[in-house]
Amino acid sequence: MASPSSKQTGPRAPWQRRLFIAAASTLAAVGVFAASYSSAEEGRPIPPPALDEPLKSDVETAVFAGGCFWGVQGVFQHVAGVKEAISGYAGGRQEDAHYQIVGTGRTGHAESVRVTFDPRKVSYGRLLQIYFSVAHDPTELNRQGPDRGTQYRSTIFPASDEQAKVAKAYIAQLDAAHVFSKPIATTVEPGRSFYPAESYHQNFLTLNPTYPYIVINDMPKIETLKRLYPEAYRVDPVLVAVAKPTN
C-alpha cells in the first residue's frame, strides 16, 4: 500500500494515490474508514460571518486552500453565484508551480482553488462559511484526510485588504464561539500569486465520480453542501473549459 503522501512523488503519483485509497475503500465498506471523518468533514452548520465584504463590483476572486484541490474545487463548482473555480497552487514561486515539485512540500505552495464569483449572488462571507463548514476541516494542521504536508495546509489567500480583514475576523469569531472542538489552524497569507494547475487536475471530481478517493473523501462534501446550504447549491457544476478527461 502506498503511503498517504505518495500521490505527490514520481510520474505515476495519481495512480499510486488511487491504489492507496482503493485499499482504504475496503475498510470503508465495513465502516472503519468512516470513523476517521472529523466533525467538520461530516458537515454541520456554523454561524455566518458577522463582518462581510462590502459590494464593490459584479466580479471578484478569492483563493482558498484546504487539502487536495479536487474536493475544494468540486464544492465551489456547485455553489450558485460562482462563475469559475480553478485548481492550482499559491504561496510559492511561479517556477515551482508544478504538481510533482509542489508535492515535495518544500516550495511554499499549497494546493489551492481560485474562485471567481458574482458578489451580488454569493458574498465573500458566504464563501468563507462554506469553506469552513463544508470544503475541509479547518482545525487540521498541514493535513486533510489521508494527505499530509504543508502543501495541504488550510490557508486563505486574500485578494485584497478587505478580504484579509473579513477572513481574520471570521476566524476569531468562530474560535471565540468554540464552533469547533479544536482551534482553527487556518492561516491568512496575503500578497501571494495563484498559478493554475495542470489540465488533468481540473474538474477532477466531476470527471471521476467513481474514483475511490473522490467517493470516500469528496462526494460526501457535495451532499453536505446541498444539505446545509440548499439555497446556495447548484445541481450542474460550473466547469473549467480547458479540462480534459484523465483516462
From TrEMBL:
Domain annotation Peptide methionine sulphoxide reductase MsrA: ranges: 61-211
Active-site residues (renumbered): C68
Substrates-to-products reaction catalysed: L-methionyl-[protein] + [thioredoxin]-disulfide + H2O = L-methionyl-(S)-S-oxide-[protein] + [thioredoxin]-dithiol; [thioredoxin]-disulfide + L-methionine + H2O = L-methionine (S)-S-oxide + [thioredoxin]-dithiol
GO MF annotation, one: peptide-methionine (S)-S-oxide reductase activity
Domain of life of the organism encoding this protein: Bacteria
InterPro entries noted in UniProt: Met_Sox_Rdtase_MsrA_dom, Met_Sox_Rdtase_MsrA_sf
The keyword Oxidoreductase belongs to this UniProt entry's keyword annotation: yes
A family per Pfam: PMSR
Annotated EC: 1.8.4.11
Keywords: Oxidoreductase
Coiled-coil segments on the chain, per record: none
Family statement: Belongs to the MsrA Met sulfoxide reductase family.
Function (record text): Has an important function as a repair enzyme for proteins that have been inactivated by oxidation. Catalyzes the reversible oxidation-reduction of methionine sulfoxide in proteins to methionine.
Stated name of the protein: Peptide methionine sulfoxide reductase MsrA
Taxonomic source organism: Hyphomicrobium denitrificans 1NES1
